[in-house]
Amino acid sequence: MSDDTFENGQARTGKVRIDPASGVPTTGHEWDGIEELNTPLPRWWVWTFWITIIWGVGYTIVYPAWPTLSGGTQGLFAWSSRTQVASDVADLQTTRGPVLGKIAAAPLDKIESDPELLAAARMVGKVAFATNCASCHGAGGQGAKGYANLNDDDWLWGGKLADIKQTIEHGVRWDADKATRSSAMPAFGRDGILTPEQIAIVADHVRTYAETPDSDAPTPQGEKLYAENCASCHGVEGKGNPEMGAPALYDQVWLYGADKPTIVARIANGGGAVMPAWKGRLDDTTIKALAVYVHSLGGGQ
């Protein structure tokens, strides 16, 4: 070994020799007593490495890659994921065009009487529902707390085809749409309309309509408070009013829950759920197909 050594165990360059343990020549480099063996990478690995570099350079030439002051290089193929998506959408529209044309031309109330049109509308509507509605109403339209179940025949705003289409188009309490469903329940507690004691009495009376297991018998005070504050929307017998989006109270179908604390909170705080207006987001044909699909889930009137 040569005497080219650095202090504190730094690298030292010496003469090449054969390592006695492996029989491999050394490079002449030593680090803290450890010598470097001269074992080059396999030739196939080196060629593969250079091929990937050449491939990478070629890729940046063929496809968009390098940023520029004006945006970026477009590549020899002028390809982009955005143009590919547009092309795929155009191909899909071409494929679905005849079916969509039939749905668009058919009157809404005639689609379900035509097996071919019904199948087509359900196919288109199912895709639209999964993409836009399932996140709130569930994959099968079963709903959740605060989100309506679309499988039963209990509808806040009406379950006929035209009613469903109207709701989808303009939403519920969607301020950006002037034709939206817009009624809301007053906040009887927050606005001081009723005292907490009166709200509790009304909650007990409301629960008698649905005959919940732990509900008490109606009381004259409860009947009086209900008649003065609730009957104008929910009906004298608690059957609701689709024109106002007021739910029925007698059928044991509850959007937020049937326990007394939940009902007390709804009476005290009022308000109502919000649904987006899909007109403008979805084309008219898709909305029509979506209305047919929802209507055919089992709860359509």
TrEMBL record:
Subunit structure: Component of the cbb3-type cytochrome c oxidase at least composed of FixN, FixO, FixQ and FixP.
General function of this protein: C-type cytochrome. Part of the cbb3-type cytochrome c oxidase complex. FixP subunit is required for transferring electrons from donor cytochrome c via its heme groups to FixO subunit. From there, electrons are shuttled to the catalytic binuclear center of FixN subunit where oxygen reduction takes place. The complex also functions as a proton pump.
Pathway in which the depicted protein is active: Energy metabolism; oxidative phosphorylation
Cofactor note: Binds 2 heme C groups per subunit.
Family: Belongs to the CcoP / FixP family.
Domain Cytochrome c stretches: 120-210, 217-298
Region described as Disordered: spans on this chain: 1-29
Main location per the UniProt record: membrane
TM spans (from-to): 44-66
UniProt cross-references to InterPro entries, sorted A to Z: CcoP_N, CcoP_N_sf, Cyt_c-like_dom, Cyt_c-like_dom_sf, Cyt_C_IC, Cyt_c_oxidase_cbb3_su3, Cytochrome_c_Oxidase_Subunit
Gene transcribed to yield this protein: fixP
Protein name: Cbb3-type cytochrome c oxidase subunit
Protein species of origin: Methylocystis iwaonis
Subcellular location(s) of the protein: Cell inner membrane
SUPFAM superfamilies the UniProt entry points to: Cytochrome c
Cofactor(s) recorded in Swiss-Prot or TrEMBL: heme c
Keywords: Cell inner membrane, Cell membrane, Electron transport, Heme, Hydrogen ion transport, Ion transport, Iron, Membrane, Metal-binding, Oxidoreductase, Repeat, Respiratory chain, Transmembrane, Transmembrane helix, Transport
